[in-house]
Amino acid sequence: MALIEIENLSVTFRSKGHLVRAVQDVSLSVGDGESYGLVGESGSGKSTILRAICGLAPVTGGTIRIAGQPVPDPRGRDFSRQVQMVFQDPYASLHPRHTLDRVLSEPLAIHGVKGDADRAVMQALDDVGLPRAFRFRYPHQLSGGQRQRVAIARALMLKPRIVLLDEPTSALDASVQAEVLNLLSRLRAERGLTFLMVSHDLAVIDHMCDRVLVMQHGRAVEELNHADLAGAGMKTDYARTLFEASADRML
User: Which domain holds residue 228?
Assistant: First the structure.
């Protein structure tokens, strides 16, 4: 069953007096439990698709459905319980004056989730491999990789089915990047999560995703499965160029 369905999506907005067609007639389908990648250079429209799903970018054409239902506008609490997003910069996405305890418990309070919040926070830290002693630390007291683990834990507090990942490791060094990617893979397997992941790096996508959509200038160029990536079975020059640029970093 397709959990995410996007048909002929277009996103157009005005920037500095110019009309920007950020996404043009893009369609894709992500199965329940699948990890699907969006890859392309900066400005290709891949992150805009995630923002459109969340209601953070203006949809000017096409449809977005989650579990067969069109996404509501505004998105609302039911949507947030199903879909959560992890952003690129873990420091910017965490409130600098909030302890990890508040960062992690806040989604539960906002959505009226009943139960032992203290236990839920400690379990969340366990799940992402952080010591419980970190509970009352602030983001600036953590490393970049630790902050991104907190961001992942926060996204999972409401037990969503879908996690949108916008370049979740690009701000981290290579060794920490691998740790975070392995964490995401483990959590996906344990919880049956569905991922829609953005990256400019095919090496990351190769490590994480079952299928990938290559994008350029707001348009879909080519869809590849994992076998295509492993065998360099690209049909377009653009996808082949991306592959060659990432080949020496394939994980």
Answer: 2-93+160-249
For 33, phi then psi, to 5°, come to: 85, 0
CB 156 within 8 Å of CB 124: yes
DSSP-assigned beta bridge partners for residue 198: 38, 166
**Overall pTM surpassing 0.85 (yes/no):** yes
Q: Which two tokens stand for residue 246?
A: 């990432």
Domain of residue 52, CATH code: 3.40.50.300
Q: Which residues, at least 6 apart from 174, have a Cβ–Cβ distance to it below 8 Å?
A: none
Q: What is the pLDDT of residues 162-218, one digit of tens each?
A: 999 999 988 788 889 999 999 999 999 999 999 999 988 878 888 899 999 999 999
Within-domain flag for 124:
no
Whole-number Å distance between alpha carbons of 167 and 149: 14
Q: Are 87 and 38 in contact (CB under 8 A)?
A: no
Query: What is the count of structural domains for the chain?
Result: 1
**Rounded CA gap, 39 and 25, in Å?**
16
In-domain check, residue 227: yes
